[in-house]
Write a structure and sequence with these properties.
Length: about 210
């Protein structure tokens, strides 16, 4: 993600929180392509050309670490990534977060906490983009991102506060998605780019 896009997103976060256009299950604008916008499978040709060991992705247990290279605005960085937990809110939280709760009827916020550690490369000068690739799925359907809702969540850091990120340092970035209340299985997904297989961490929603 370019710095220009990052600032546009930051500007949106400062406004009244609203649901993004991409809805649960891909029923809103954007259609059925929504669930694979960032973490879709590579084409058959790409799969044949790309060595198996370079594909990455796959299912992991909660807290299990994955390693992936990522392009931070032209700086190649190798991150160690681990989805730690998903905090699921209530209908009351939805009423507080969403400007028009009627548009989010039956949905509750799910905040994914993901720890990133620079293993190699960098340093990342400022505004790291890796945390922007976090997605939350509920019972197999991608949730609806709620921009800006994680900025003040306990245990979450703002990417805009991270400067001169060196190897060995870790930060926890979060993203909030609206998911159906009562969803049984939540997954956190992350991929370095839209053509890469995502890493998938599974969490039971008790």
């Amino acid at each position: 993600m370019s710095k220009k896009k990052l600032w546009l997103r930051a500007a949106a976060s400062a406004a009244v929180l609203t649901l993004a256009l991409t809805g649960c299950g891909g029923s809103d604008e954007g259609g059925d392509a929504a669930p694979t916008d960032k973490g879709g499978s590579a084409s058959k040709e790409q799969e044949e050309e790309q060595p198996e060991e370079e594909k990455g992705g796959g299912e992991l247990a909660a807290g299990e670490k994955a390693t992936s290279e990522f392009d931070e605005d032209g700086t190649k960085v190798t991150y160690e990534i681990a989805a730690q937990k998903v905090d699921v809110g209530t209908a009351e939280d939805t009423r507080k977060l969403v400007s028009d709760p009627k548009k989010a009827a039956g949905l509750v916020p799910a905040v994914a906490h993901v720890e990133f550690t620079v293993k190699d490369g960098g340093p990342v000068a400022d505004y790291p983009d890796a945390g922007r690739e976090i997605e939350v799925y509920a019972d197999g359907q991608r949730g609806t991102i709620l921009i800006g809702a994680s900025d003040d969540a306990p245990g979450c850091e703002k990417s805009t506060d991270v400067k001169d990120w060196k190897a060995g340092e870790s930060h926890v970035f979060c993203d909030t998605y609206m998911v159906p209340e009562g969803a049984k299985e939540l997954t956190v997904q992350w991929a370095a780019d839209r053509d890469a297989e995502p890493y998938i961490w599974k969490f039971e929603n008790s």
